Amino acid sequence: MAIEYLGLSEINGPLVVLEGVENASFEEIVEITAAGGEKKLGRIVELYEDKAVIQVFEGNEGLSLQNTRTRLTGHPMEAPLSPEILGRTFDGIGRPIDGCGAITPEVRVNINGLPLNPVAREYPRNYIRTGISAIDGLTTLIRGQKLPIFSGNGLPHDRLAAQIVRQASLGGKGDEKFAIVFAAMGVKYDVADFFRRTFEESGVSDHVVMYLNLANDPVVERLITPKMALTAAEYLAFEKGMHILVILTDMTSFAEAMREVSSSKGEIPSRKGYPGYLYSELASIYERAGIVKGKEGSVTQIPILTMPNDDITHPIPDLTGYITEGQIVLDRQLNGQAVYPPINVLPSLSRLMKDGIGEGYTREDHQAVANQLFSCYAKVGDARALASVIGEDELSPLDKTYLEFGKAFESRFVGQGEDENRSITDTLSLGWELLRMLPRAELDRIDTKLLDKYYGG
């Protein structure tokens, strides 16, 4: 029988303290009834002896020390799940906000997930096509991978995320089921409306599950949103055999919410004021991607984070880079040149790319073309540096050719329209077209047989 407690011993921001608690457990959900009858949810985040520290999701408005009633539910935060969640929109803690009523849950699952035995993991293979050349061609997204996008304030990461949702597919294999789980944390209303409207107008809403935590929603909800989304993704992948792409934006909002709550709890801060457990919290989210042996589905993650002051050494991108398998870096200079998407390919990489491309996956020349484009674009940087010192007119003919290649590469290969959905064949053909601007002798990363086949005379 659930016990109800009357009164609170302390209220501090989103945290309240309850004394005289018996048989409570960490992460347990509690139902709080304010003096006026308003009901709120909270979760226990700390326990000492008979005291419980509770995070209140909807904020502390209306709570009083004397008349607040608190009831322990006896279970952690759970997500109600069924195949009905496809095409639906929920708030940050899983309540429907699309006006279509509650779902009928098939199961209720603990949102904190269970540790996945490393032995049960299957190595990621096959690729997910985004239709974006800079990603598909040079930093290929592999099923079961976690590949973050490092952005900055004012850069078009929202437009890029929406384009990936609209265009993502399993590379033309129509017999496998594919869906997207999209979670937004701390976004403004107009941004949330942009995503919702874009998905509806492009006709992809029926295979997208959305979790939206708005900027004016309680900060504490932001800590729940990614876990709620990943629980839905794991259910669809491992119970329903679907291949799920999870897009989480913006992980910086998640980390800042964690810093705010940590400060309210009086914890000793670590780097830049973030709690010392920032790494383990991020890892607990990112590591929920992968493929399980014996299961048909997979969970692939694209977390998006805005780097404060464009600083890639900031704790959030720094720790994210340790945990994930590469990164896609957006560049402010390219954005200033009206290149969309402004992906800087040199610091971007996908560590699992080599295992999901080539013959049988994409095309035999994929790896060689990617290596050669990286190499040639790096030489463009050298030529530009030299031109800035001695002037473009004094460059050798070869260096001038590299400058032309660099402009064409940025405007035609990296740059593409928001509605332009390129196949992997289109991307590789465009890569060869650009490489033909350079003398054959400069293409030292490609096998002679491939050069004979694709470069031409």
Blueprint of the fold:
Layout: E1 4-6, E2 10-12, E3 15-18, E4 28-33, E5 39-48, E6 51-56, E7 69-76, E8 78-81, E9 89-91, E10 107-110, E11 121-122, H1 133-138, E12 149-151, H2 157-167, E13 178-187, H3 189-202, E14 208-214, H4 221-239, E15 243-249, H5 251-264, H6 278-286, E16 291-292, E17 298-306, H7 315-323, E18 326-329, H8 332-336, E19 349-350, H9 366-390, H10 397-414, H11 424-435, H12 448-455
Parallel strand pairs: 9-14, 12-17, 12-18, 13-14, 13-15, 15-17
Antiparallel strand pairs: 1-7, 2-3, 3-6, 4-5, 4-7, 5-6, 8-10, 11-16, 18-19
Helix pairs in contact: 2-3, 6-7, 9-10, 9-11, 10-11
Instruction: Please state the average pLDDT score.
Output: 91
Overall, the morphology is: elongated
The first-to-last residue Cα distance is 82 Å
Helix content: 25-40%
Number of DSSP helical runs: 12
Beta-strand content: 15-25%
Word description of this protein:
This protein is an alpha/beta fold and 457 residues long. It is 33% helix and 21% strand. It has twelve helices and 19 strands. Strands 9-14-13-15-17-12-18-19 form an eight-stranded mixed β-sheet, sandwiched between helices. A seven-stranded antiparallel β-sheet has the order 1-7-4-5-6-3-2, with no helix packed on it. A hairpin with a 2-residue loop joins strand 2 and strand 3 (15-18). It is elongated, with a radius of gyration of 25 Å.
